[in-house]
Amino acid sequence: xxxxxxxxxxxxxxxxxxPAWLLLALAPRWTLTRRLVRSGAWPLLLxxxxxxxxxxxxxxxxxxxxxxxxxxxxxxxxxxxxxxxAGWAHYLCFDLCVGxxxxxxxxxRGLPRIVLLPALLFTFLLxxxxxxxxxxxxxxxxxxxxxxxxxx
Length: 152
Description:
Elements: H1 6-26, H2 31-38, H3 41-59, H4 71-77, H5 81-109, H6 113-126, H7 128-137
Helix pairs in contact: 1-5, 3-5, 5-6, 6-7
Pfam families: ABA4-like
Organism: Hymenobacter gummosus
Transmembrane segments: 12-32, 44-62, 82-103, 115-137
């Protein structure tokens, strides 16, 4: 087994998230996609990875380096490769959550998958750019009226 290094964990996290994105893009209604991805289980695995990485950073020898109060502190925090890897896991997790929401919202609106796919691609690659694109695309199909007791 390869040594547990930030580079290895980075590569592992990248490889682990790809199947979830492929399932969302190619088979969003498949039972396996619903159980593993749309249920939130896949992002929870990434969240657990993030938690483990960030805890090991703050409990480790570099725990006092950096912070979130200024750009200089964030820069100092991400000088540590483990903290940088944690930050990457954070991005992967939250971008996947946004992709799941886009798929579920598009399905509820009846937005064709072919219209959704560019937004999913941009969400996967560029996060907020994909969210902006989806925000524009979702206006093509108004949301159905919410049923009593259901959030719109």
